[in-house]
From TrEMBL:
Name the record gives this protein: Histidine phosphatase family protein
Binding sites annotated in the UniProt record for substrate: R9, H10, G11, E12, T13, M14, F15, N16, R59
Provenance organism: Lactobacillus jensenii
Gene Ontology CC: cytosol
Keywords recorded for this protein, A-Z: Hydrolase
Example GO biological process: regulation of pentose-phosphate shunt
Keyword set includes Hydrolase: yes
EC number of this enzyme: 3.1.3.-
Active-site residue list: H10, E87
PROSITE patterns cross-referenced by the UniProt entry: PG_MUTASE (PS00175)
Annotated GO MF terms: fructose-2,6-bisphosphate 2-phosphatase activity
Length: 226
């Protein structure tokens, strides 16, 4: 059975608002984040889902419950948490200032004091950017390209196992993880360069086929445009 997957990025959090690195570190949704998510929930309220899932981080769990509570045509039981869909792990940089973190990674990669992450990735390519992040991390705990790619493949395999008898599901994940999925599985991405970072509460739609192949068909759609 082919499964349609609605990937939702969680709502704005306190760390998003404070411009802090937020991977496996967690912070609560802001009032703005909740209000923006209500628009997404309303846009999806008349779409039937056989099930809903989320990563195991609280900001994603809170987001999926907002989606569940607003949906008028689905009967969703207990939400299953899938840790494979956690955000990218930034190791020792978790909770640090974002601009200072990008500057540190940029310097480690020999690009000077660049703070625009898209410019850094476009110069290095995604592979070297992930490697530079791990190298710049004092404890070298940050996920590099191979580690993240392995987890991403495992995540899709796990999702196929969970949804084998489901036509359409909703899954709440995270910005960098969704973006990395799109770079790999969206035919409008060349698989090398950076693409736009998905907005909080945005909708990315994918198709999971019987043989486990995954393809993204819509990326970073805002609620008002859905």
């Amino acid at each position: 059975m082919t499964t349609e997957v609605y990937l939702i990025r969680h709502g704005e959090t306190m760390f998003n608002q404070l411009n802090k690195v937020q991977g496996w570190a967690d912070s609560p949704l802001t009032i703005k984040g909740i209000n923006d998510l209500k628009k997404t929930a309303e846009a999806l309220s008349q779409i039937h889902f056989d099930n809903m899932y989320s990563s195991d981080l609280k900001r994603a769990i809170d987001t999926v419950h907002l989606m569940k509570n607003a949906n008028e045509v689905s009967e969703i039981g207990k939400i299953k948490k899938l840790p494979e869909f956690r955000e990218v792990f930034f190791g020792s940089f978790e909770g640090d200032d974002i601009d200072q973190t990008w500057e540190c990674i940029s310097q480690k990669a020999g690009l000077g004091k660049e703070r625009d992450v898209q410019k850094i990735i476009n110069q290095l390519g995604l592979y070297k950017f992930r490697e530079a992040t791990k190298a710049a991390d004092p404890r070298h705990l940050a996920e590099n390209y191979d580690e993240l790619n392995t987890r991403m493949i495992r995540a899709i395999k796990k999702l196929r196992e969970e949804t084998v008898n489901e036509n359409r599901v909703l899954l709440v994940s995270h910005g960098d993880f969704i973006k990395t999925l799109a770079i790999k599985y969206w035919n409008k991405s060349d698989g090398i360069h950076d693409i736009a970072f998905p907005d909080n509460g945005s909708i990315t739609r994918g198709i999971l086929s019987d043989d486990g192949k995954f393809e993204i068909v819509d990326y970073n759609i805002k609620a008002e445009d859905f």
